[in-house]
Records
---
Amino acid sequence: MKYLRKNDFIMLGFAVVLFAVLQGLISGRVLNSFWQLNLLIVGINVIMSVSLNLINGYTGQFSLGHAGFMAVGAYVGVVLTTNFHAPFAAALLAGAAAAGFLGFLIGIPTLRLRGDYLAIATLGLGEIIRIVIMNIQYVGGAAGFKGIPHHTNFAWVFFLMLFALFFIKNFVNSTHGRACLAIRENEIAAESMGINTTKYKVMAFTIGAAFAGVAGGLFAHCFYIINPASFTFMQSFNYLIMVVLGGLGSITGSIAGAFVVTFISAALASWPEFRMIIYALALILLMFYRPQGLFGYMEVTNMGIFRRIFRKGGHN
Amino acid sequence: MEVTQQILQQLVNGISLGSIYALIALGYTMIYGIIKLINFAHGDIYMVGAYIGFFAITQAHLSIVPALLISFVVTGILGMVVEKLAYKPLRHAPRISVLITAIGVSFFLEYTSMYFVSPTPRTFPAMFGDVAVTVGGIVINGQQMLILGITAVLMVILTYVVQKTKTGKAMRAASFDTETAQLMGIDSDRIISITFGIGSALAAVAGVLVGVYYNSIDPLMGIMPGLKAFVAAVLGGIGILPGAVVGGLILGVVEAFVSGFVSSTFRDAAAFAILILVLLFKPTGLFGKNTKEKV
Amino acid sequence: MNFSRKSLKLMSVLAGTMLMGGVLAGCGSSENENEIKVGANFERTGNVANYGQATLDGFNLAIKEINDAGGINGKKIKVVEADNKSEASEAVNAATKLISDDKVKVLVGPAVTANVIAETQVATDNKVPIIAPCATSPDVTVENGSVKPFVFRSCFIDPQQGSVMAKFAVEKLKAKTAVIYVDNSSDYSKSLGKVFKEKFEAAGGKVVMEEAFLAKDQDFKAALTKLKTANADVVFVPAYYEEVGKIVKQARELGFTQPFLGTDGWDDPKVADIAGADALNNTYFSTHYSDKDEEVKGFVDAFTKEYGHAPNVFAALGYDAGKMLADAIKRAGSDDPEKIQKALEETKDLKVGTGTITMDKDHNPIKQAVILENKNGDRVMVAKIMPDAGN
């Protein structure tokens, strides 16, 4: 336990340094606005992928509806800030609560399903959420919600991302998290060990959905307009790609996956004709060479290089 | 139009729409049945099939039947090639990695096609006259009935192949337990390859027929029908051939009735809602066998 | 050794990816005194890629013609292209890249209203003018009654077309009832439907039923069966050609004999290919020009020569955007974005591909509209209107 906590401090210190460096680069205008914007997108994508990882990677529940929860967080958030002039933090919180509550409501019945049946059910739910939003004229319907204030900046994204990472990391390492891992490994065995599988599945799903709501709020206040077309099932695939690419069940992997996907997409922006073709090939090749994802089940804190540097921690 | 007539017309509309979903779902469900892979690229194989048919008709000036055959064969081979290059190396990888590869293949097919044929939709030249029959005020289109007929015939043939022939027996064995099947002398790789070939060839038939009937094809045409066909397959119980057809027809009829009597804007939502409701009561689909997992 | 082979391999994969990205990102921006950089932010992949591509084709043709004729004030125009994946957030991303990375002086595109609105703030913050070739919603250039200084367009706005067609339905076709069938996923379609309803009912008609579909739908029979029960005098379908062709085809098959009315989204030769000439008889739509018009023949021929097929409305508007841009840069006498913005505001009696335009105070071009009738595979002009008169 002591080892873990020490690692936490190391990572936190590292994060603060990283933030200072990046914020310095932004304030000093070393990074131009394109790369600044992409830093925000990376951060938002990290929140999305790490929260999806909690559901897919740690609890083993195959969800394909993550963009739907993001949409809920985004729309609740923008209605509050734009129409009711609520503070940004309150809007984000409300978006998270709404997405989490919806995840809870949806999770109870659907998480009885298994594997691919759950996948298609969650994909369907994500689409239902999107279609319902599309039919609500109050939020602009298909045309989208316009005139959103621009509140999202690097500090918001970075610290909320950090919060999401630490929250989910600690959840996974807690009793509840262990229960989720047991469900992933073998649901029936877990149940016979006395684990209330429904409770933990719904818990993971709710937390994941709530963080997707936070990411949605950040996303919405970044682009001045949101429309339902930004939250299709293709978007859910995108987050799934990040999670699998990084490694199911690795938080480090989720960060890496979000980073790689966003970065490839941004770097290829100048080659519109080949952008998606190269992306598709990169996806296929990465799966060939690392089918378990970049990090597999590994975390950076467990890797040789990390332990070598911070050797004093202990031996496991 | 009176209400009963309208209901009947919507039923006809729904069945004809559903028969297209069913036709695509047949290939989907076969492939799933054997390697438990949600082949997200299936919708794009269907698109490629439509384009091959299109070029056979417009460039090689063939008539519909040879064009269908060419598309059937070429797309079938394409399916086998995709399987060999993209999925076979991952046979022992986690299932989700194969799924991501399938998404990658899907993007690859969509955007390489877009690069070569441009995103502009193409139209088929008029192949055979539109025959629409009106029976008691209800309009029935000849081409739609043809699609329904072909779907039914293919389903029967496929069921026969899977249930009665040696290859079919091998397919079922490989689907049940690939490794044991291998020990019994079944060349599982070959069987999987054949399944991909047949499944893709079926998608090509659907692609060409849809292209001729709706008269417009484009590189992204496979996304929605692919998803709907997947829904249809799951609705019927994925891996079960008659299930795919029934699932497709139900989906089509539900969509037609929601569009006709509620509002088209909720059509897709209703389709997914029906799927979820069915799954909640029958978690393995309408025709699915509920196998209890043993520890 | 604590460096396991696994982690080394992992690191090298990561490093490789980053390196590749870095190299790709590094090249691309090079300053050249003799060119003026223009950013083309279009839908190249995703749902509406066909519209984005067509608009870009038209735009590129205009730029090619200008450069072949020696450029502007001795400088050539260089088009830097970026893809927005048909998504609002990606449109912001692409616009930001074009402005900050490539240092473009003007942005052209995207095709779709929502994507233009999304990029507006970035462009305004950086004082870079936008020319939106085919974003027809009024809020593209005006917000809460005030004009957005940096946004211009080269097409007419929805209320103009909607009222032209409503007036045509009542006066020429003597229609008393109408049904409206819109594309629920498109701002363009929905807002035209709304305007048509208002104007048609103000002129004494009645809209008896409204239905909606979604872009990329293939089968429209269910909703059409419902619309048929209304038995209205005309059917108004403000939508894009791909769906329009299928709608008209399937409607005729179900026994619709009424006239169909449409808007400039219908303006593509593909409509006739998809629907068939017979089905398309007795349909009317408003658009920017008639291809028989002497004035636009030059553009139609040049486009057909360049791309091997006739232009559609998106290509025509993209071409107009290119001409507008070149004219503004020429009059600005410099590539300073703010001077170009001023010059765009002062666009007057400019001959473009589809006619002659003058920029109004809301940054919308004042241009003619025509109503075409589809007749046995041909398009016949039935009316020519200055849209102002149609209000």
---
Amino acid sequence: MWKYVIRRLLYAIPTLFGISVIVFLITRLAPGDPIRLYTFGALNVTEEDIQGLRAYYGLDQPLAIQYVTWISKVVRGDFGMSLIYHQPALGLLFERMGATLQLAFTALFLQLAIGIPLGVMAALRRGSWVDNVVRVFGVIGHAIPQFWLGLMAIILISVTLRLLPSQGVLTVGKDIWDIPDRIRHIIMPAFVLALAGIANYSRYLRTETLDVISQDYVRTAHAKGLAERTVIYVHALRNALIPMVTALGGLLAVLVSGALVVEQVFTWPGVGQFTYAAARAKDYPVIMAGVMVASTLLVLSYLLRDIAYAIVDPRIKVK
Amino acid sequence: MAVGAQAATRAIEAPQVRPSAGLWSNAWYSLRRDRLTMAAGAVVALIILLSVAAPLLAEYVFKTTFDKQDLLHTYGAPALDPPAYLLGSDEVGRSQVVRLFYGGQVSLFVGFVAAFIQLTIGVLLGLMAGYFRGRVDDLITWFITTLNSIPTIFLLIIISALFAPGPITLTIIIGTIFWTGITNFVRGQTFALREREFVTAARTIGASSWRIMLRHILPNVLPLIFVLTAIDVGTIILAESALSYLGLGIVPPTPSWGNMLTNAASYFNRAPWLVASPGAMIFLTVLCLYLVGDGLRDALDPRLKSR
């Protein structure tokens, strides 16, 4: 087991290397000089000052040298100072990590709590209304643009019905531990973010459950007189859930990606919103830190997925 | 005797001669019976038609253009008269319905052209990885893993924010990002197909690697690639609209379904219908493309039919 985990960890290194090269190249090859943008509108900036700043940020070096300097700092967690906030870029992002993780995990919880029972029910009662809902929803849930769903929810629920707040994590002026207020704020963004996953999980689990309940060992379980409930929950569901572990990794990717758009719609102060604002302001250190952090989260989630898969299905280790 | 036997054979054979049904005619046969897929296909065709005909419709039916402002009729509610305000008017009195059709031109162009680009890259890399295996495969797989590990929207946002691409460049960028799914699929199929007898036979008579890949293996993978492509067009339209909504994809004055929502979102108190219609168009188009993809898959390969 440990051998597999270590090998899998080593596989992550070339991936992270590739990501860092892509991110580095995109930001460095982009047209527009960050130093000129940075000093734009400032008075009394001479050409020497600009050259000086360029040398200070190391932008006068060849690309390969710049990369090595940059990556050797990055592995120590130093992405440089934000050009706008004059604070370490990584620190600024970590301040916003809590909000993003809160949103992503609430959404993940909703996906599992709603998607799994829905999928199993659809499979057990084929042709019933639950089954039809799951099948229709399985397509619709993916086709709805998240940001539009968010906007429509704000118009309907916040503006027209005045039921839930439309933005932020907390009402201004409330105590930070005001949990009911926080819950009221997270409901809409979390549901919007969870929708595609609910559709995915329920459709996936429906197919898996249908597969499993037609297998011989389930018939055997029935034949030896086990209660229906025991057959389903102890024998069938356990195996139907195995491939779900694989789906989890891909869905985390969707969550991390989707969070950016949803955070923007609901003014949720997370990593995505911050990276987006940095991209618009060309705050290079924050952009690079933001993409690297989001990608590392993704690599980690793929890693956890593979390890979890090896635990639930021991056959995989042999590969 | 021999002549007699031959005649007899011919007599039996004659009624059996009929055009053999190929893959596509078989698929068409079952597609025609799949009402949902046919309806979805018709909707996609209608949306394409309305978008392509947008200039004509604007001139002869709605009697306006996509950028003609009317500051006396801003935030107009949907009304039948004049026809230009069928779906209301926006913050500077432009016709929402005409802009919707023009927006469709851009969104559909990006969707279909980017899908074609990613299809080309995806198929070529997939064939190479699956056929050559070894180093080539390792390299391509590494690249796929790397690209898949950067959240797509983050990648699109930094590229768009830093390079500020026009519609054509944006289409190419999206095309060069989305190919990993197709590559994975083609790679897997090629792995299996290259061990089959017909590939060995082709190699025995001296066919080159590229000839085997393109003439012998590709035709076997192609049908299901069309399915994936139909679905990818939908996914790309979704990504483009999110990007344009964020103000980074297609930027005004060119209308796209995504950027029509950017402004509308700030005025939703006064004109909620301006938010409703572009989103509904994206939703409808993507939904129908997904349904066509699903239906096509069932028609091409009944074994995969979703239960």
---
Amino acid sequence: MSLLPRTGPNLIMKKNKKLGFTLVEITVALGLFAILAIPAYMMFSYGAADEMSYHKTAAANRILESCRDEIKNLSYAYAESLGSTFDTVNLPPATFDKLLSEQKKLKDSSFKFLGTAEKKTGEPEHIKFTLKVTWTKKGGATAEEKLVFIKVK
Amino acid sequence: MNTKNGSAILMVIAVIAVLLIISTFVIQNKTQRAAFTRYMSNEKKVEAVAEAVLDMTIAKIRIEANEHDSEFYKFLRSDCATVNGKLSNGGKNSVMSPPTKIQSIDPSYFKSAFDAITSGDPGNFSDPVVSAQIIHAEAFGEKKDSYEVVGISIPPKTSSAKGSGTFPNSDASPNKNWRLPLLYPPYKEGADNFENVWNDLPQNDIESGFAYKSPDITVKLNFKGLLAKIVAEFGGLDDELDVNILLKHATSEINSRTAIEFGIKIEDDFIEKVNKLIEKYNNAPVLSWFTEEIDYLTTESVNELIKESMDGKNTIDIEALLFEKMNEFDPLEPEISPKSLQKLVMGENSSPEYSNTAAGSLPTTYIEKGALLQLTCVVEYKPISSQATLKKTFKAEIPFKVSDVQPIAPEYTFFIANSALLGNPAGKSLPQSIDFNCKDGGAELAADDEFFLHNMNHEQTIGKEETLSYDKVKNRKPSAGKIRVNGDAIDPVFLFPGTLNNGIKSSELTALALSDQSDPNRPLQLKATFGWYQNMSNVDMLTKQVKIHFPVLRTGLHEDEEPAFQTAIEKGIAGIYYMYKQKNFDDIFTRPSLLYGYGHMDYPLGNKIEGKVGAVVSELFGVAEVDDKIGIDIKIDIGDIDVDTHDDPWDKEVQTYFGIKNIHTYPNGGLIPYGMPNISQYNTIDGTWANTNEKGIMPSNCYSLLQYQKKATSYFVDGAVFMQELADKDYNIDGVNYIEGNLNLSGNHTFSGNGLIVADNIEITGSTIQLADPDSSLGIIARSGSLAITDSVVYAGCFSNGAPVFTNSTIYGNLVMNAFDRATIYDCHIRYAPKYMTVKDTKFSNEDKTNPYRYYVSFAENWSKSYYEKK
């Protein structure tokens, strides 16, 4: 056996062999990463969408609560004047402002409002309001939030 | 080297592990978020149910709060005790101990709301559990602690009168403690000179005996039968002889009962002529065969004959006649008998209207309050996708007021408080002397402009269309309002509330009367009126224009019919006497009463007259008018032969003179008590006489301006806004309607509900203010200013702090005021009508503050606070 240090291409070749990954390794690693990263990516992707959905749901609820509070605090005559159905156009003023600000904040103009009022005679007379806010989700589906309350004369 | 092989895989695995951890977190987060979203969604459902349930519940409570049969009616009107027993506490409202009762609420109150919210929900809602509790209460205090409300915080100061007298037993001497001495002045030449009568009035001693001579009266002797033939045959005997009728005081003391003793002094010429006739008779042989001889006449024998003709009496005692009459109908109509009256006055028996008006203590608890009502709703929800039950407890608080809407002093027809306690009106410092007589000027004005108090319950004197006949009214036994005048100075107050305008149950039986109720079908409208008279401090100034306003009997159906009224002056003293003897003068209704005196008076004597009224009594002076209606038949029986009869011995009427004079210190330099017998006075008539700073003699239910502001159900910035809003709610007047500033009412208005209108000054012009239904009541209160009513008819209890100004108007209700000025009353009628100022089912006694029906409940528009109880 020679005690001289090895020089020349063989030495270089040996060093390269020790520091690198084999093609198999890389292939397997990339394969595994691909297999696992895609669902993860999908999950994050959907998570972001859900996050947006939550924001929109919360915004829809804020609009609904604003409308409820406004109707409750305005006169019964005003509540009657809203008619059996009312939409974005004839929303109570503060609720209309709320709707616009939420749309602006979320950069989503798909929010739609629809209210129905069902007058119940008897004592005491009252109106059952069903308020709905809808918006378009990613992919074109429609989401909806609903609030029911009564306004007593 | 081998150990490094596969490290890439390890790295990848590490990365993957990290990714898995992140993914797991994200997944878990998403799951939790989804669950949270569902929870939040469910929670909102539960909250929506709870809020809807309480919204509906309070709405129903609002509706039922003033419905008598509601389970909430009495709950909201629960008694509360103040901490210090007063309405105020150092200028603040006294906080009261709220009732501890928790009122559970029937599901029917909120079912509709519950169904509306929960319908279509896949989950399962349990029935909400709802309850109510008053969690805070405080009184409507006055900023001055000293202000108290009579009948609410302090009892009215009324009589604790009890007595064991036996009125009208003559032995009890009804005139001992209450009386109007009726004296007949001496005749003097020139008797038609009124001043002469006064000048000759006895003061401290009255000579008894035949002291006073009447005008000559011709007695017509109408001989009949055989004697007439004899007289005709023999001749020489005139059938008209002059005799002198002498009036005699029955007793020597002026404070004795009133009586007139008749005596006849026969002139010698008459005796001589008659005796000549008798002599002829006795000497006639034919006649003497059949009869015994006739005794010769003497003055004494003629007097004896007259006495016999008066059933053995030669004294006419007017009071005795009165009581005799009263006793006659006693067994017939027990409720209007003197004995019943005695029981009423003396407290042995009470009429329903005044059953609680005796002095006493009031409950120290209060129904009236500002309070907080807390409603609690517990809702449970079990979502279909979860086993867990969601439970929420929602509490909401709403302020409410319980306000007294009973008009002021509804038991009174007329009440003058005359006290700074109620607040001095602008430009006046009370108390002031009550000038009924306009002595400061305006007497003529007062004379020209009528001011009538109709003290009998108006509703009980009318039928469907018109005033009922006397008999019908009598059968109804109407109640009467009281009259109170808080006098200040020694200032005469002449009140003549007619008995017919006072129910028997509360009438005072004072002696003077005038009524000729001969036609039972005649519309009955006795009107009481204030009298006025000229300055009587100097008798020399008295003239014939001195007026005595007795109650007058309306004789025509309409006021413009002639003759519309009949007065005592028209009838004269003889007329009064005659009236006593009238068949139709047979009950107390036909005996108007005279209330006359100084200072405080509380009338009728359900309580008593109190104060210095005893300082003066009125004396009625007069010369008897002996007219042809006083018939004394003289029958001289001579054996079997009627010697003579006199159907009409008096053929000459004598002019009647009479007047009233005040006696301040008579008879012994002291005061003469005035009131019913054996009933102690409210206070003694010495220095302890209650003055007008006595809280207890203020009108009941009269709150301060600040208190009305505090308890206002509705607060209006001015009268115009009030009228506008009133029109919007169909003139429903429920509650306390407080108007800042003044209110002008014109045009006709019909109000409904039970309410008060409170403002500074109130002016009603050309209006008919009436009520829509029998259950409605109205109080019109010019609390800091004056009430002015012109050309109007008002159905309400009215209050004016300043002197009211009335022109040609009628109030059906009552009139309570602080200041009074007769000169600002230009034709006004106050007709006592408790119906228009009494909340349904209430009695209007002062101590009725515990009656929940007189309180109106009003709620704030919105919840003051609401929250969910933390777990």
